[in-house]
Amino acid sequence: METREVTIPRTTTGKVRAHQTQNERLTFEKSAPGKKAYKLPPLDVPPVNTAELLGETFREKDGLLPELSEIEIIRHFTRLSTWNYAIDLGMYPLGSCTMKYNPRVNEFVSRIEGLADAHPYRPDSLAQGIMEIIDLLQRCLIEITGMDAITLQPAAGAHGEFTGILLARAWHESNGNARKKIIIPDSAHGTNPATAAICGYQVENLKSNSDGGIDLDALERQVDEETAALMLTNPSTIGVFENQIHKIADILHAKGALLYMDGANMNALVGKVRPGDFGVDVMHLNLHKTFSTPHGGGGPGSGPVACKKFLEPFLPTPVLVRRGAATTVGAPGLASDTWESTNPDTLHWNYDCPQSVGRVRAFYGNTGMFIRALAYILANGPDGLRQTTEDAVLNANYIRKKLEDLYELPYKTPSMHEVVFSDKRQQAKGVKTGDIAKRLIDYGFHPYTVSFPLIVPGALMIEPTESESVEELDLFIAAMRSIAREVEENPELVKTAPHSTRVSRLDEVTAARKPVLRWKPE
Fold first, then answer.
1. Residues 161-202: pLDDT tens digits?
2. Distance in angstroms (rounded) separating the CA atoms of residues 501 and 498
3. Strand 459-462 and strand 419-422: pairing?
4. Exposed / middle / buried, residue 453 (Cβ in 10 Å: 0-12, 13-18, 19+)
5. Which of 119, 156, 175, 502 counts the highest number of beta carbons within 10 A?
6. Separation CA 470–CA 465 (nearest Å)
7. Which DSSP helix (H) or strand (E) runs through 197?
8. Helices (DSSP H) in 404-469: which residue ranges?
């Protein structure tokens, strides 16, 4: 693959400059017979004929593994690592994903030997430290959300949704009516309909009003005795806070339905308002979005679920309790009665929860994420958490103000932590949101979220988070303004971007329909 010249107006942004990049072949293509990155000591046991020992089926075969020297391996993976974009390099403007910085103190405390090495089968008498961390995090999250109880088991946001709707279903079933449907606004996160369907519910769509919020009249017409819950993302995926949230809760509760809140956007609420105070019955949190644990790469994630008191009996088992609570002692993994009797202020896992929906994950959740999230909460404190929320909202509105003269703003409702533009003005020149996003790569930024939410055709969804300085925001704004000018003056430049990457535009349709998943020798 040949490197192409970067075409960037250097007078408008200082983010990146043209630079040389090395091409990189696959390890298979660099391989040569006989090369090795290791040297084993001489065999000190009698050799074994594996074919005779294991049979013909297990005879030695050519595994088509590459053969490289140590320095070739080191250089190969080091060069590949320099191709990655990361939060440590620059801003991620991805809306909804909330790609905030992960403070290094989180990583330090998560690696403390006694915490990092805590084994899930360790008896409770030897695990009080890690259990105190889990207990404190639970109490912090309950206070932040205004709820009454919580489970940390779910391994991701969507997994948290699943757990929360299981709680709602179990509660309805305990009342003799499982109900049939869940209402989901068109501004909700895309995983919400899938969650409802997996939990056995029919999904009914609820269209937003002209401000991008819930249409109260339409909601009142849809909610009936067959409605189990409304799954509401608040603030919504267009960054709008539902200012009629109390009325929404009242409409649902009047019909015996529950209000489930997708808490993925809690980055806009922490320290300012608590969902439990405005009528939410059950919700999930994304520790990576709001509390700065690692995000991406398939995990590890964490999606705790908080609920009101009446849903507490249905929480997944085991439940963390202090000695003296009304629980059954002696379940698997609990400490001995003798030890507990001499240490009254101790924690243990309670398995005796007859109404529980059962386990949703092995053991107790992703404990390393709990440590990181608690470090973030304690490092900031109440005032600091409130400040991060205010900074996130300020940053989003700063970008909105600086770009609204060039990019269409479909909803004039005040923005919270993210702002959603559309490509309506640029489409007059044949340029779409995906083209603008690809051109943004040439300016040294990761693309924003493209074409989502679906209620905004050609959406440009931007969320700077509280992590970014005004200097970084100004570089991003300069790049977006420069691209808007390019659309007017030379749209083909944008429509054929990116120009600075090792691979230019891919045939995405063919890649999706005919993927090449395994390398084969020529």
1. 999 999 999 999 999 998 999 999 998 888 999 999 999 999
2. 6
3. antiparallel
4. buried
5. 156
6. 12
7. helix 191-198
8. 433-442
Residues 6+ apart with CB under 8 A from 74: none
SS3 state at 310: helix
- DSSP code at position 146: T
Q: What is the pTM of this model?
A: 0.87
Both structure tokens of 475: 């570089």
Answer for the pair 265, 232: CB distance below 8 angstroms, yes or no: no
Assess contact for 494 and 436: CB atoms under 8 A: yes
| Alpha helix stretches (DSSP H) within 455-514 | 470-489, 491-495, 508-513
Q: Is 460 helix (H, G, I), strand (E, B) or coil?
A: strand
| Torsion-angle region of 231 (φ positive above 0: left; ψ -120 to 50: alpha; else: beta) | beta
Instruction: Taking residues 376-405, report their average pLDDT.
Output: 97
Token pair in block for residue 349: 């896992």
Q: Is 495 left (phi over 0), alpha (psi -120 to 50) or beta?
A: alpha
Question: What sign has the CA pseudo-torsion 464, 468, 470, 473?
Answer: negative
Q: Is 423 helix (H, G, I), strand (E, B) or coil?
A: coil
How would you classify the pairing of strands 227-233 and 258-263? parallel
Could you tell me if 215 and 206 are in contact, meaning their C-beta atoms sit under 8 angstroms apart? yes
Q: Is 320 helix (H, G, I), strand (E, B) or coil?
A: strand
| DSSP-assigned letter for residue 408 | B
